[in-house]
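Section 5: illustrative case.
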């Protein structure tokens, strides 16, 4: 050991070995480090030195003397057994080790990639892809749907949400829904069921749909069936409402709207004078959608499964047109149903809150029982029916229950006169006593 430590730079020191046998050698490099070699003579008389590694008597950064002798003994035994070209053999072994390491690294990467890809086809990914689809289609419900799926599926049931969508079973879906129904949220459970069913169906169809979201198509390629399709509807989720304002309540409401200050006054009057249109549709209306010649307002109806919104024209009575001008005084932006002079649309939440405040004031003085924005819409249809307005006219006025050719051929002129007359009757009902109201006659086609 002392001899090795005392070697001069460039010097060799051989470990004793029988004559003709390979032996262990050490050499000190110019850097001061010592390298161990195995030296042997081939059958052709060529001397070959094979590096074994750096030498370190402590074993901390290299081979100890015992380890170097062990490696040399292994090579000596191989040479004695007939392996003459040990250099080539060791190079082949190193190449094999490198190939094995590369293959192992590739296998690990493939496994990690498979795990990453698995995250792209989970139920969670399906939920988010469905919301992305709605957002791309311009559906105003997209943020609400995304929030509901994140809250009630992804966050509420992470173990199920992390499963590949193709592995999701009806029992998994039941577990998601039952957490809501057990909390008394039957309506929310029904919505989640509808969202999941639509999401799975959309992903399956995306395999054959031009322009489908890549994320949906990727998930759809793993699916063979829709696990939500056979789930029974959520019981207790319909909860049909039937609150309708009496004629006296409707008149009292209209009277209050007449003196209600801005912005609530004109907002709620336009809502009522256009037939109780859906607040979300009114919020999307812009000044470009006003046809001055026809005195009509264009609303875009995105409700249902239609891929393109249906153009829904609503007659504007002079009073409603004047209130639109009042709301847009200053013309700060394009919106007509607004509390900010047209800069932004009035949200459904804001308008519904305004109606609840009017309702509370009326309840306080005994003018009405509590009512909501939905009750106003229902009241308009019910009161028009009582005045003899046909179901077809009511459906066209409020844009509901239209399908097939009836919807496809609907334009601003369809039922225009009948709808305008219905709104005049509504205004007459609110302004006059019952005896002065004349029922509408069925329009000639």
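Designed sequence:
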């Amino acid at each position: 050991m002392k001899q090795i430590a005392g070697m001069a730079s460039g010097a060799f020191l051989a470990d004793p070995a029988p004559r003709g046998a390979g032996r262990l050698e050490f050499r000190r490099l110019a850097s001061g480090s010592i390298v161990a070699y195995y030296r042997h003579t081939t059958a052709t008389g060529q001397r070959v030195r094979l590096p074994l590694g750096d030498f370190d008597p402590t074993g901390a950064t290299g081979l100890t003397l015992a380890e170097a002798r062990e490696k040399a003994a292994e090579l000596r035994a191989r040479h004695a057994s007939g392996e003459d070209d040990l250099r080539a053999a060791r190079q082949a072994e190193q190449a094999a080790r490198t190939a094995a390491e590369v293959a192992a690294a590739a296998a690990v990467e493939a496994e990690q990639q498979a795990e990453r890809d698995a995250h792209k086809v989970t139920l969670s990914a399906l939920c988010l892809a469905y919301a992305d689809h709605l957002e791309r289609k311009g559906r105003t419900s997209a943020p609400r749907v995304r929030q509901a799926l994140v809250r009630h599926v992804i966050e509420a049931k992470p173990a199920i949400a992390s499963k590949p969508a193709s592995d999701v079973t009806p029992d998994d879906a039941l577990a998601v829904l039952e957490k809501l129904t057990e909390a008394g949220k039957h309506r929310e459970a029904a919505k989640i069921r509808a969202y999941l069913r639509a999401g799975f169906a959309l992903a399956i169809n995306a395999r054959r749909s031009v322009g489908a979201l890549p994320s949906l198509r990727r998930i759809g390629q793993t699916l063979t069936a829709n696990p939500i399709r056979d789930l029974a509807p959520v019981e207790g989720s319909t909860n049909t409402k039937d609150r309708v304002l009496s004629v006296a309540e409707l008149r009292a409401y209209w009277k209050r709207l007449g003196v209600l200050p801005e912005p609530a006054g004109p907002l709620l009057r336009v809502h009522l004078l256009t037939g109780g249109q859906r607040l979300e549709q009114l919020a999307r209306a812009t000044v470009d959608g006003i046809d001055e010649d026809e005195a009509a307002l264009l609303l875009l109806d995105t409700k249902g499964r239609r891929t393109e919104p249906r153009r829904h024209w609503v007659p504007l009575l002079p009073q409603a047109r004047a209130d639109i001008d009042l709301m847009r005084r200053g013309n700060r932006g394009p919106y007509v149903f607004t509390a900010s002079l047209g800069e932004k649309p009035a949200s459904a939440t804001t308008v519904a809150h305004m109606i609840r405040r009017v309702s509370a004031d009326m309840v306080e003085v005994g003018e009405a029982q509590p009512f909501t924005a939905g009750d106003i819409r229902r009241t308009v249809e019910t009161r028009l029916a009582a005045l003899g307005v046909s179901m077809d006219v009511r459906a066209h006025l409020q844009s509901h229950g239209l399908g097939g050719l009836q919807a496809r051929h609907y334009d601003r002129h369809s039922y225009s006169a009948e709808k305008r007359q219905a709104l005049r009757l509504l205004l007459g009902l609110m302004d006059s006593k019952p005896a002065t109201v004349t029922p509408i006659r069925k329009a000639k086609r």
